[in-house]
User: What shape does this take?
Amino acid sequence: MFNFVGLSLVVLLSATVEGVEYDYFKYHPMPEITSWMNQTAKDYPDVVTIVNYGKTYENRDINLLKIGLSTGAKKKGIWMDCGIHAREWIAPAFCQYFVRQILQTYKTDTKIAEMMKNVDFYVTPVLNVDGYIFSWKDNTTRLWRKNRSPGPEGCACSGTDLNRNFYANWGTIGVDLTDCCSNIYCGTKPVSEPEAEAVTKFVGGQSGDFLAFLTIHSYGQLLLMPYGHPNVIAPNNDELMEVGLAAAEAIKKVHGKEYVVGTSPNVLYPNSGSSRDWARLQGIPFAYTFELRDKGDFGFKLPEDQIQPTCEEAYSGALHIITYAHDKAIHGIESGAMTTASATLWSMLLAVGVTSATLM
Ligand SMILES: [Zn+2]
Assistant: This one.
């Protein structure tokens, strides 16, 4: 009897020591996230593949997990990236949770199973790999936001704000064009940064196949929709709003948290060169930025005990958008308030300086 108990204990402990149990509700440094990606691909060989689609400035791989059931037919895509801003650690935690959820449920949840047949999920847990690693270095670098490329000649600082570097009204508003020390320095030209280029090439090469583009940030509890420029309106603005509001409702049902929905200038601040705006300009209909918890109490240093509830509620919101985009494309189900103008509005506008205390 005594021996039997001892044996059980050993078995229990060894399961943990072998690292089988990945803790989704802790923040993980990059090497652990990379191991997790490799392990996930190993655990689900029929549905998960790792795709390398670029290199960072410091020559690290930018990888995503492609998740879906292969049917032989050409499939639609759902894009999700996390960690474009280094210090927003809850974002990579969410991407990992999202992957875990769809992989754990697709065999029992018929809706997830259907979507896994019709679409492939392209999930990048950490897009700004160099910046993320730098934010883990020590206390002085914890709040690093940008990538790690050097500034132009004559400027001593490093880093470009990758979410100001995309080809979408680039350099017009909510950016710093000249001071490379600024946290919103937008680079020397559109897509000057290898990380932005990787997304532009990968998604842009097949943008007609993507139904939704979700880019995950913190903080503020917001669902931001195109466009960052106050004078440009998405052709499906009403539908984006309607779907966003329903997603916020879904979020609220989980733990009662309020998320505000709207365009960046209406609910946060105007900006240009964001990946979300670029995705919408490419024709991807449902492009949203998630600003996860909280509203400033802890900000970028969201305590680990909030990872689980934050992920649970955001999963519900993301799933609402994804399900809507899927059902509309596959079954032709859509809301009544939709406008389908295909032309994209571009305006030549004067750059307006914008300052803000906190950048998300
Ligand atoms: Zn951000």
